[in-house]
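Data card: per-record layout.
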Amino acid sequence: MLRLRQGVAYPPGVTSIPPSWAHLQPASVKALLEPPGTLPKALRITPDDVPVEIALAVPMVIAARLLLELAVKQGGLVLTAAGFLKRADVWHVFDQTEWPGSNKTLTLSMNKVINEQDALGVFFTRIALQVAGLLRKRAGVLKPTKAAKSLLAEEAAPALLGELFQAVFWRMNLQDFDRNPLEFWPQHHAGLALWCLSVTAHKWSRTDHLTPACTIMDTIGEPVAHDLPGFAMLTRVLRPLTWLGMLETRRQKRVSGWGHDEDFRKTPVFDQMLKFRVEMLGAEDARH
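The structure for this 288-residue chain is written out next.
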């Protein structure tokens, strides 16, 4: 169970920024956290509000459509003995996609061939399609489902984006992709983190600002390396949101560790996609 209290003890190196959720009524905090493991009661996903042309330009939607189209054309995506996509299928998607935070030129210079493990965006999208029930594994082949075929029409791109969003934050285990020892953090309070981003990330902000402002820091066990919370926030919240087209990122000329040379802010897709029903402290009739 998540422990909620003010006066959070922050890990060394993390600025003690008051969390945005501290301004919410306790009932609203609870509604952003429950029911556990599924879409919170205080959050509604509205992909129909995202324009089709915008959804079609989202990195994960582009990759998902390429994978699903290939699966339909080939009668499925054959997996290797180790359970990964074949190199030819990986290249088909990798060559046609760009991923915020990823350097395609560097990836190509470091790898003679591109395996699925080398193309994180492709791998991430493929797993999302599986957990969303749009690709089903049968005898070592990933077959597109009937629902997947219905989402291939261009006008269905916003609906596909909605399926991918729910899969990423409430059906996948994002720890599988970063090897960060912080188990499930902050994914176990994704709804709360998303609301905090909705009121915090309207301007360019660094990871080390967004981490304490948008998460529940006191659910982290101690001792913990000072950079692990920010790393988890980057790989499990901020980066996936850029791949879903809901955040944008820019590089800054800062000399620091991983992730700290990037700033993030909301795109219009964030507010088009997500609607929250919460009450602020001191204003019971106020709704965000």
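Known properties of this structure: DSSP finds twelve helices and eight strands in the chain. Residues 1-15 have pLDDT under 50 and may be disordered.

See the next section for split statistics.
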